[in-house]
Amino acid sequence: MTWSLASWPPSVLGSLPPNEARVTQVNNYVQLLHPMRAPRQASLNEIIDEETTVRTGKTPSRAELIFSDETVVRLAANTAFSHNNGTHDLNLGEGAALVQAPKSANGATIHAASVAAAVTGTTVMIEYHPGVCKFLVLEGTARLYRPGHLGDSVLVQAGQMVIGNPNAAVSDPVDFDIARFVRTSRFIVGLPALRSESSIVLEAQKQQHEKSKKTLVETNLVIFGGGTRVSLIGQAQTNAAGQTTAAPATPHPTPGPTQAASGASQ
Q1: Residue 191 belongs to what H/E stretch?
Q2: Is 233 helix (H, G, I), strand (E, B) or coil?
């Protein structure tokens, strides 16, 4: 099964109750889990309520949901996702998701274990596995924080990412290469353009300008595919996009491996 490409007009999305989402993309194995019904395969245009968990199978399984406020949620393979109170509580049980939440999505928040991110008016990618969480911003500004831990939060700007243990204090963000992410991410490549595409392109151009001024410099620290493992590679590998989903761009002075890594994703 391939991705079904759909573009829903505002009138169709507006007919959705705010606490429900519509399935607009399905690829391969996408299962719907409901406490009162047997598990079943998701289908295009299906309505997802608050009691349903969307779970994707192994690669190349993917899914996309759109809410009435035009928030887009794209799910990578091996991901479990649910929601409550519309986009106010988007819940990533495991795996990775891209969320594009327009300014109209007032109070949009995504939760992953013991961390959360306020994502209204921005496009972000979040990945969670037990003991580790990765969060990056493609455009706009988001706040990553730990609920119940006063002051344990950080503003993450476009082109920045945070990697850490969700049960530990939130670490400072580092830079990643937006253009490389867009060229290689399965959340982007071969799919309909996000409404925030022009903003993402603008942020990538800003980074390129900073590189030309040497405010940002390329490093050979990368993350291959999903996950959070940072690899040190040679220049030839860095130039070949291949498996590399993003090449890091880090401020002077060039930090060590514990301080900077590429923004990588599914």
Answers
A1: none
A2: coil
Say how far residue 18 (Cα) sits from the centre of its chain.
21
Radius of gyration of the chain (CA): 18
Residue of 17, 67, 70, 63 whose CA lies nearest to 44: 63
Q: What tens digit of pLDDT does each residue of 42-66 get?
A: 999 999 999 999 999 999 999 999 9
DSSP bridge partners of 55: 31, 80
In 3-state terms the chain splits into helix, strand, coil percentages (rounded to 5) of 15, 40, 45
Q: What angle do CA 91, 94, 97 make, to 5 degrees?
A: 65
> What angle (nearest 5°) sits at the alpha carbon of residue 263, between those of residues 5 and 225?
65
Structure tokens at 247: 């090449």
**Angstrom distance (rounded) from CA 235 to CA 38:** 51
Which tokens belong to 29?
A: 């194995």
Burial class for 57, CB neighbours closer than 10 Å (0-12, 13-18, 19+): middle
8 A C-beta contact, residue 57 and residue 106: no
Stretch (H or E) spanning 197: helix 197-212
Q: What is the pLDDT of residues 66-117, one digit of tens each?
A: 999 999 999 999 999 999 999 999 999 999 999 999 998 888 999 999 999 9
